[in-house]
Amino acid sequence: MEQPKPTVALIYDFDGTLAPGNMQEYDFIPAVGKSNAEFWQESNRIAEEQDADPILTYMSKMIDEARHKGLSLRKEAFRESGRHIHMYNGVQEWFPRINRYASGRGLHMLHYINSSGIKEIIEGTPIAKEFKNIYACSFLYDVDGIAYWPAVAVNYTNKTQFIYKINKGVESVSDGKLVNQYIPEELRPVQFKHMIYIGDGTTDIPCMRLVKHQGGHSIAVFNPEAAEGRKRIEHLLPEGRVSHICPADYSRGSQLDTLVKSIIDKIAIDYKLDLLAEQ
Which of 129, 140, 161, 246 is least surrounded, with the fewest CB atoms within 10 Å of its CB? Predict the structure, then answer.
């Protein structure tokens, strides 16, 4: 009887990880007549003045600004915004190449998004189809299909809940029962040691630390064209929060490509050694 392939999960942040900058900055913020600095400063000021979650205040501000300018708040409009996002070098070719590489080493690869950005915008990008699930902020919609309130707000700490959902194979955001059931780690659909987390900033630190400390692999990436790119995150390595740091270049033969393939090799070898030990 053929041994089933173990599942490996590549989990990505979105903004700054797969695409430069914040997704709202490509066309939403210009459409409401604000500069990027104005939008985020105003949103953060509301959070500070009312001691609110900055994720909730930016989502509320998106709704308010769109209404003020008469912009559509339908899912289709957000998804159209996603079509304007420019990815880092090699991103679109990355997924089939990594899937083939993992399969060639006896592993089943799944990809997930874990983002504080907007799910509906991510769904409009050309890479949306590559993900098993997209865990991100989203809106509630009224009977006319108009966004009116946040449905899911993903900040730096509650991002970790989605790591556990992936670990236990729970797809639903609303589920709070199955994700809390006890399942031995070796019986979980995606073991922590079979996870690779790729992120770029402060909202990713709890997830990167969690995955690394549970035996998985965490990679911090930076914009290779940004002046302060590596310097902004290099402290994460000596602090023990990540396993590796490299440029956000997903092209064949890049440092990230070589690194992820090496991690896949290690996972495959460790899995074979575990089988031998059991025998």
Answer: 129
How many whole angstroms separate alpha carbon 73 and alpha carbon 142?
10
> Can you give the C-alpha Rg of the chain in angstroms?
19
Query: Residues 6 or more apart from 57 whose CB is under 8 A from it?
Result: 43, 44, 46, 47, 50
For the chain, strand residue ranges (E) read 7-12, 108-118, 133-141, 147-152, 195-199, 217-222, 244-247
Strand partners, 222: 247
The closest of 264, 259, 255, 212 to 88, measured between CA atoms, is 255
**89-146: per-residue pLDDT in tens?**
999 999 999 999 999 999 999 999 999 999 999 999 999 999 999 999 999 999 999 9
Cβ contacts of 59 within 8 Å, gap of 6 or more = 118, 137, 139, 150, 153
pLDDT exceeding 90 applies to what percent of the chain? 82
Distances (CA, A) of 52 to 18, 56, 62, 155: 28, 7, 16, 12
pLDDT digits (tens, 9 = 90+) for 212-243: 999 999 999 999 998 788 888 989 999 989 99
Report the pLDDT value the prediction gives residue 279, as an integer from 0 to 100: 79
Give ∠ CA 142-139-86 in degrees, rounded to 5. 130
- Residue 202 is which amino acid? T
Looking at the DSSP assignment, which residues form a beta bridge with residue 113? Answer: 12, 134
Name residue, tokens 């670990």.
167
